[in-house]
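Section handout 9: paired folding examples.
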Amino acid sequence: MAGSRTASTTRDAALVAAINSVRALHLLPKLSLDFRLARAARFHSLDMLRYDYFAHGDFGGRMTRFHVRGRLFEENLAWSSGVMSANVTVADWLASPPHRATLLDPSLRRIGVATPVGAFRGWSTATLVTADFAGS
């Protein structure tokens, strides 16, 4: 179920726009925002900030917990000291074959992202990015 029933930041919107721009360059359909994916992504990014770790964790369990529907799920993560821009995040993912494959997977149709900023791994300001994707 797509929709905007979750808080989205300017950074979140910029990341989705950057991802959809890259998909358009490859003649792929835009990803639509999914409030369940966005809630799952926000939960995960905030959890990583709170408990100072960087890992996918129980991704399947998180999709179940947030009632995300679909047969195909993927997740890209990123972090950087300071405030990480959407273009840098997408460029980094495009340079990594597994992350690039996720961004350009034509089976994926929905997305939810979170880009909170906080203290992480000794940095007073860091960005923790979670992008969750789903397909039919």
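Moving on to protein 2 of 2.
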Amino acid sequence: MSIKSLSPQWNELLKPEFEKDYFTNLSQLVNTAYKTKTVYPPANLVFNAFNLCSFDSVKVVLIGQDPYHGVGQANGLCFSVNDGIRQPPSLQNIFKELANDIPGFVRPVSGNLEAWAKQGVLMLNAVLTVEATLPGSHKVFGWEIFTDAVIKLISDKKEKMVFLLWGNYAMGKQSLIDASKHLILTAAHPSPLARGAFFGCKHFSKTNAYLLQNGKTEINWSTQ
């Protein structure tokens, strides 16, 4: 993992974080893990969420927990999987809600959500790396200090953003966000473990309505 793979704009904005002791330690832990273990996503995609969605273009922030830990799944975007990979249950439920919420939405064959990122959806996992088959294994590395700083940076420096917080973990990030100038939408996690509580949140249509009200272009949620 190298911050050199991060786009120049994000690199400049996050420079104060990169210069802190915790990030030096984090980098060492992550780089050692890549050398000695099987780690996802591939090292060149650790900052994929940032590189596909510039700071200037961010309109929506979707917060996940940590990357998928199965072979070929993780591509650096929360909830997203690579083309040709079976859609995980949470992503299937996201598409089900979209079909109920957005008229004409057709569930895509691929679970790759890059198209959202390119329209201004920052799909940010709180922890950006994981060891194969061990969910949460890099939670102790210090990633959350970094990603919390990213969330606060966006909240402080931008206006009229939409933050999508699904599940108790993501909802715990609310204190980082200025609710007086952004829209915070909370819901149950789309995981089947939530027993369908995610359904009916209508976050996708609410997001687009808010963006339009504030002079921004809406998101085309169709990924294909």
